[in-house]
Amino acid sequence: MKVLDLRCTHGHGFEGWFASNEAFETQLAGGLVECPVCGDTAIVKLLSAPRLNLGNAKAPAETASTAPAQVPARLSPEARWMRAVREVIAKTEDVGERFAEEARKMHYGEAEERGIRGQATPEQTEALLDEGIAVMPLPIPAALKETLQ
Ligand SMILES: [Zn+2]
User: Fold this and answer.
1) Ligand 1 centre from 98 Cα, in Å?
2) pLDDT tens digits for range 75-86
3) Which terminus of the chain has fewer Cβ atoms in its 10 Å neighbourhood, N or C?
4) What is the pLDDT of residues 82-100, one digit of tens each?
5) What 3-state class would DSSP assign to 21?
6) What DSSP string describes 60-118?
7) Residues measured by CB to lie within 5 Å of ligand 1, the ion
């Protein structure tokens, strides 16, 4: 399992989890690696300072991690990721394309607070983040997607 520091052409930094470097290259070539903030698929891999041991390298820019935090650390990153995605799916209501609308309503107290998931365009996601509404882009692993259909 590789955790790569990635960045889109708009300067959004994020982590991507891949089985291997080849898996990353393949997904990148297929346009499957997306910026979680803006959906950009022109992604570059950053060299990770700690792994290169450069000592006085600059601190990494703000990183929007796509990995949920409260998952036990004993599992492998892949298992943690799959589990986190399953949990999100189990605990959230699918509001589909009304996602941005529902998230905003909850934020402003016009709808009951609950876990929701759905689709939002990169513009909608950015607008929500601008308004201080916490949204987490969650690319569903292809393997899990198949079992859901
Ligand atoms: Zn971006």
Assistant:
1) 22
2) 777 777 777 777
3) C
4) 777 777 778 888 888 888 8
5) helix
6) PPPEE--S-S-S-TTS-HHHHHHHHHHHHHHHSEEEETTHHHHHHHHHTTSS----EEE
7) 8, 10, 12, 35, 37-38, 40
Give residue limits of the domains in the chain. Answer: 2-45, 92-137
Q: State whether residue 29 is helix, strand or coil.
A: helix
76 contacts: CB under 8 Å, gap ≥ 6: 1
Q: 148, 149, 122: which is closest to 135 by C-alpha?
A: 122
Instruction: Return the closest-CA partner of residue 113 out of 121, 104, 126, 122.
Output: 104
Closest among 9, 6, 8, 38 to 24, alpha carbons compared:
6
Alpha carbon of 47 to ligand 1 centroid (Å): 18
CA of 112 relative to ligand 1 center, distance in Å: 30
CA of 7 to the centre of ligand 1 (A): 7
